Amino acid sequence: MPLSVRAAYRERLSRGDIRPDAAQEQALGALSRLEGDLNALSEPGFSSLFRKPKGARGVYLWGPVGRGKSMLMDLLFDSAPVARKRRTHFHVFMAEVHASIDAWRKGDAAARKARFGQGRGDDPIGPTAELIAQKARLLCFDEFQVTDIADAMILGRLFEALLARGVTVVTTSNRPPDDLYKDGLNRQLFLPFIGMLKEKLEVVAVRGPVDFRLDRLRGARTWLAPDSAANAEEFDRLWADMLDGAVESGATLEVLGRKLHLPRASGGLLRASFASLCEHALGPQDYLAVADRFHTVFLEDVPRLTPARRDAAKRFNTLIDALYEAGTKLVALAADEPETLYPQGDGAFEFERTVSRLQEMRSTDWLERVRD
């Protein structure tokens, strides 16, 4: 039998995996309340088969990166007395929602019946919500954020339909509800959804002074050169430490109507090779999307650069500019130190600014910067 969320948290404290944190304690109270509510809902009753499914009031944990929000949600997920439950990244979930909506709109009655168990009507939101609710009574989302107008326009109706079907929602976010889809197109149409979130989910700020992910980076080398077996092992070890048991679920970013698939991603963490990001026809908008989406990027197999690889070097410059401006943390496994990556030849002069930024991005001051 799994430990309660509070007992599991205390066990981590006793092992020294985490340190006491008042903000986490407050969030723990909300999650313990939810755990109790879910326990009460799971108790069988004579008329339970004839009642409309009922969910519990969920929890919305928000705060800067590295404050333990995902860890707390995972403790609740493990302890929750719910047979059908799912924990996923919000972007992954929304990609699946859009795929379901598209399948409903394009499918004939037979195709709809095969996928959704029903086939009538023009509105895909109800059947999509029904399909989700059949598979999960508890939905836990990591890194809830809304930047896409297509997401913004369907979220209110989708969540209303999910809650009506007894689905309980727990989510983490870097932003409070009032800042979701901030300055977005037609944001006034999104405001009722924000009101629904604040009513249906208990909103808790997790804004403790300690960035636990930063603790893992602090003291570690974030620019590993040369690209030796020993440095590759250290790179792998730091990646695993930052994941802290999370699964590499991957991410797909939509940029100017194109899809950029990044298979080694988990939440706000991305691991990618130099070749995958800099030797393909990617542009500034792609790199801006990467920088916006991820708070920490692990970049491996950065080679020495020469005029023969000038196009790749230009893309690398643009990538670093985007990461720098966004305040993204960078961990690199490279053939050499920044100042000797592109020492001479056509393009070496333009690379000097990138060298300066790379040096700053490996500094303690850079790591201490707070990124919301």
Radius of gyration from CA coordinates: 23 Å
The termini sit apart by 37 Å
Number of helices: 15
Strand content: 15-25%
Q: What's the domain count?
A: 2
Helix content: 40-55%
Shape: globular
Q: How many beta-strand elements?
A: 12
CATH topology of the largest domain: Rossmann fold
Give the H and E element order. HHEHEHHHEHEHEHEHEEEEHHEHEHH
Overall mean pLDDT: 88
The main pleated sheet reads as: 5 strands, parallel
User: So, CATH architecture of the largest domain?
Assistant: 3-Layer(aba) Sandwich
Numbering strands along the chain, what is their spatial order in the largest sheet?
Answer: 2-3-4-1-5
CATH homologous superfamily of the largest domain, by name? P-loop containing nucleotide triphosphate hydrolases
Topology:
Elements: H1 5-15, H2 22-42, E1 58-62, H3 69-79, E2 85-89, H4 90-106, H5 109-116, H6 125-135, E3 138-142, H7 149-164, E4 168-173, H8 191-200, E5 201-205, H9 212-217, E6 223-224, H10 229-243, E7 251-255, E8 258-262, E9 265-266, E10 269-273, H11 274-278, H12 284-293, E11 296-302, H13 310-326, E12 329-334, H14 348-361, H15 364-368
Parallel strand pairs: 1-4, 1-5, 2-3, 3-4, 6-12, 10-11, 11-12
Antiparallel strand pairs: 7-8, 9-10
Name a few traits of the molecule.
5-stranded mixed β-sheet; 12 strands; 372 residues; Rossmann fold; 5-stranded parallel β-sheet; globular; alpha/beta; 2 domains
Summarize the structure.
With 372 residues, the chain is α/β, with parallel strands linked by helices. The chain has helices spanning 5-15, 22-42, 69-79, 90-106, 109-116, 125-135, 149-164, 191-200, 212-217, 229-243, 274-278, 284-293, 310-326, 348-361, 364-368, and strands at residues 58-62, 85-89, 138-142, 168-173, 201-205, 223-224, 251-255, 258-262, 265-266, 269-273, 296-302, 329-334.
